[in-house]
Amino acid sequence: MLILSAESLILDRSDLLTADQLNTVVQVPTFANGWTPPFESTWKWLFHHVYTHEAYHAGQNGVIARLNGFPCSGF
Question: Residue 37 in contact with residue 28, Cβ under 8 Å?
Fold first, then answer.
């Protein structure tokens, strides 16, 4: 099984992933608070985790704006 390092997360356009590569294991960095992923991290998991995490923040921004009297942010 191929294991990639965190440094390999930056891809140029010639290194785009194909569907069969999404289950390749990726080593994630050690987090200061000790958190580790609940299972082996794959590209598929990494993209999903980052997308849902950032979507969560977009939702937070909308709620905070609404609570502070701003019109809906459109998220």
Answer: yes
User: Residues with Cβ < 8 Å from 37, sequence gap 6 or more?
Assistant: 28, 45, 49
Q: Give the number of residues written for the chain.
A: 75
3-state secondary structure of 29: coil
Q: How far is CA 68 from CA 7, 50, 62, 72, in A?
A: 40, 27, 10, 11
H-type alpha helices, the chain: 43-67
pLDDT over threshold 80, residue 54? yes
46-52: average pLDDT: 83
Among the listed residues 19, 22, 12, 20, the one whose alpha carbon sits nearest the alpha carbon of residue 4: 22
